[in-house]
């Protein structure tokens, strides 16, 4: 077998009439797509990842980009991806890595769920003129309240509530670690959540001192590698999240290549400079719900029961039963991460083939927790492929209390979803630690963009709620009546507990 | 649309149904002739210790025997009879209304603090989901619900509401917009002592239904009002919230208001919203809920449906329209419009 190169994925062209040979494309492309040939710039299309940095930076709009100008013989079964994966693995004998979320052309369930709106008999509510409440509390709630009466006849609340996070919007930013993304990117996200009254996750990379001013809006993560975890770290967080699994790669651990472990990252993660940071697949002290319960309790004990503890799992077939176990482990919230969840790096086979869609998982988790009478006592956070405010609204109607966004927040900062995060060369200064690239991201400016996105989605969620005649997010949560399925099969409608359109 | 009216005599004196019939008919513009109904507390003094089960049978040949057997398994039928009805020219008789005076055997439901009530609740859910052609729509002690698909006067005359007497009356004139008009869908909705009349739509129904079903209730009537009766049963009977707090759970103050409250109150209302957020009702509504001790009326948080309250001596009236109240009592001591979400409570002394 002759293993030649595979055809180029993108064709980059330079319009000679427009190009003034300023060289900005060369400076901006860390993948080496452009180079001088004499006094002319030429493009090496093979290196292109379609990150769009050159196009965004070209002062003359001289650069063109087309996807796959050369193709294989078309075949319905032996797709281009299938054949190229074989070429690559035959050549290297290795696992194929991939960044960002699931890239399979699977239909989105969100897109086949339609929201409801009121007409005539039930007035829609105008959020510009009427109060619209999106405030959400994440944490444990009691099953019921106990009251007593004072001698004067006043009602006294006997039940003591456990600590909850108060969110002004149900949109949070999920865990993306320092290491996977740059400090500037983390700073921009932290400023954005501070501004919008919500929270973000630190990821498993510890907490850099530059983030301390924002620590009351940070959820610290305890993953299997325990990177950066110490009492100081736990105490700084507003909440603690135990990461069991991740939507992009259920059942496997994490891997930050040594090249991304610069001095600062090594310090923050508490690992040697330049060493690979490998999170094991399981937590080596958790092999059962009882073990998980012990860790939940230990973390609570360590932080004097002042902080909610979340447990994050990947959406898998048995997610509902696992979530019910988590609810009984004493955790305050369960995070369910769907198979479209993003990642810095995952084996492609996991990213594209393991896990289930968040829509089905949230619905099943909500149903199971209700069956067991504990839904009200634990919060459910949905994540993995939330692309717009409609997805947010639908996820909440399917049973989530709040959602995490990841890729969407990165896109707000400039990410073009080119899927090469694992190479550490992100031209936008997001998924990289190379100082010259990191410097391209202005935390102030990008914080505004991320905050704008959260605010815009929040406004849209309010509008959607108002249209459905709902003025508090509590009444949207788990409200399947406000959804109808379109072009979904009967089995899926049953899992979602949603009626078909027209019914 | 829909028109509601209710009255409680706080001294416990009985009123007959003649005037509430006229008052309800006053609001015929709020109905469409597809549903009307009445609930009366104190209706059956001679069987006050029995649960009065009102049942719609599609026919008594095929369905009644199954219910009889079930009731006899769980207790004793003290008396039973067809509810007397009087043919009306425009009202089509669809079901046979029947009533049982039933005494459950508490020894059969173990491990519960209120076995009799739990047996009756179980029977209502079981019959309404598992015995086709049979619907128990009223199940309290010494109270009765009378309802059908028709105009208020027709339904009243069909049952001869004028002949019943009680110290609390609830009445409802229905304009169905979401679900079809059928006998079971007419208001009042009842479970045990609780009866509910409702004008509006509950947009949070999907959330409320999933919440209440996780406590073992089953919604069978295809209409949003049903959950209100179960929510009140859960909050007031099972969780022990008083009327005021129960209403605050169902139609809570806005966060802005809660944030501005004194510390103790703030903690109380915050706890109610956090704990009972899924019981909170949304959408336009004006509701009156009754039990044997009194009535409570309230609207949604931005008052998208009208509600008027009035007093005349010992009597407290709550209705969609003042004109309807004045039809019952032309001279009133006090008339007021309750604020959004604010409960109006009339307790029997």
Describe what this molecule looks like in 3D.
- The complex is a heterodimer of chains A (503) and B (349).
- With 503 residues, chain A is of the alpha/beta class.
- Chain A has two domains: 10-72, Alpha-Beta Plaits (2-Layer Sandwich); 136-500, Aldolase class I (TIM Barrel, Alpha-Beta Barrel), CATH 3.20.20.70.
- Helix content of chain A is 29%, strand content 17%.
- In chain A, the strands form eight sheets. Chain A has an eight-stranded parallel beta barrel with strand order 11-12-13-14-17-18-20-21, surrounded by six helices. Chain A has a three-stranded mixed β-sheet with strand order 6-22-23, covered by helices on one side. Chain A has a two-stranded antiparallel ribbon with strand order 1-4.
- In chain A, helix 8 crosses helix 10 (358-371).
- Chain A is globular and about 95 Å long.
- The mean pLDDT of chain A is 95.
- Chain B is an alpha+beta fold.
- Chain B has one domain: Glutamine Phosphoribosylpyrophosphate, subunit 1, domain 1 (4-Layer Sandwich), CATH 3.60.20.
- Chain B contains ten helices and 18 strands.
- Chain B has helices spanning 18-26, 64-74, 115-130, 152-159, 205-213, 225-238, 243-250, 255-259, 263-276, 322-328, and strands at residues 3-9, 15-16, 36-41, 51-57, 75-82, 96-104, 134-138, 143-148, 165-166, 168-173, 189-191, 194-200, 285-291, 294-299, 308-312, 315-319, 334-336, 344-347.
- In chain B, the strands form four sheets. Chain B has a seven-stranded antiparallel β-sheet, covered by helices on one side. Chain B has a five-stranded antiparallel β-sheet with strand order 11-12-13-14-18, with helices on one face.
- Chain B is globular, with a radius of gyration of 19 Å.
- The model of chain B has no long low-confidence stretch (mean pLDDT 94).
- Chain A: This is Archaeal glutamate synthase [NADPH].
- Chain A: Belongs to the glutamate synthase family.
